[in-house]
Amino acid sequence: MNALNITSVSKHYGELVAVDDISLSVNRGEMFALVGPDGSGKTTTIRMLCGIVQPTNGNLLVLELDVQKQKEMLKKRIGYLSQKFSLYGDLTIDENIEFFAEIHGVYDYHVRRDELLEFTRLTKFRDRLAEKLSGGMKQKLALACTLIHTPDIIFLDEPTTGVDPVSRRDFWKVLSALLKTGITIVMTTPYLDEAERCSRVALMDAGKILMTDTPANLKKVMNGEVIELVCSNIRSSFSLLKKFSLVKEVQAFGDRLNLVVNSSTNDMQTIIHYLKENSIEIIEWRVVKPSLENVFISLLTDRKIGESFAAK
């Protein structure tokens, strides 16, 4: 039994197509990520699933409930953490959770609140005003408020955007522990390293789903090979390789570069010769496993090439 099913769903705002005929399903008890750049349709999809935005076309089922026809029943069984979750700065942690419990009609909430505070490691801060919390603590409090009515599925819209790396890691520990309770988590994120932690991922761009699969399977469709290159003068090397025809993509990571080439066997000797001709010393290079970021860029590049040919 699926936690949700999306069938041929589109959302238009006048001439703007925010979501373009997408279909997907999410299993119960899994952590599923919608991944893509700003404007790719992630947030609109989440808001349609929560019944906040009406689709232009298509059908949405969440927990076997029709989102458009059974919205009130659905509200009791889902949790939604938006990009701008509204905590009340002049209320304490305890008071914020109490407020959201009462909104959801939960009045015997004290045991549940204590469990959530312990779960999110906020117990010792429970009397602190929300406006005095760090960004990471605010997100954990927002999550506790989202969970106070014990939903079966939660929707998290970019929950760690703007949060420092340590707080992001702590938030993910909380999500991993939460998943063990059997809840379904559907989230959006612009961070492809976060998406690697999910059981399945849908890569979105321009309102369309490019591909949906496990992170491991997505990496198998990578068009080309990823090369980690350590060399002298990283900045000059980056500029040179950016213009070199055999290099499909180049990224700088500290003291090394990641290149995407069609074939390391066929291309690397030519690339190395080209760099040496430009006074770049090659220290070492090796083929590495692609990241989801490599896969996503590859899919976008292939898509643009395909659209270019189709337009001719």
Q: Name the CATH architecture of the largest domain.
A: 3-Layer(aba) Sandwich
Task: Classify the secondary structure makeup into a structural class.
Answer: alpha/beta
Helix and strand run:
EEEHEEHEHHHEHEHEEHEHEEHEH
Total domain modules: 3
Number of strands: 14
Architecture blueprint of SSEs:
Blueprint: E1 2-13, E2 16-27, E3 31-35, H1 42-49, E4 57-62, E5 65-66, H2 71-75, E6 78-81, H3 93-103, H4 110-119, H5 135-147, E7 153-157, H6 165-179, E8 184-189, H7 192-195, E9 200-205, E10 208-213, H8 215-219, E11 225-231, H9 234-242, E12 247-253, E13 256-261, H10 264-277, E14 282-288, H11 292-311
Parallel strand pairs: 3-8, 3-9, 6-7, 7-8
Antiparallel strand pairs: 1-2, 1-4, 4-5, 9-10, 11-13, 11-14, 12-13
Helix pairs in contact: 3-5, 5-6
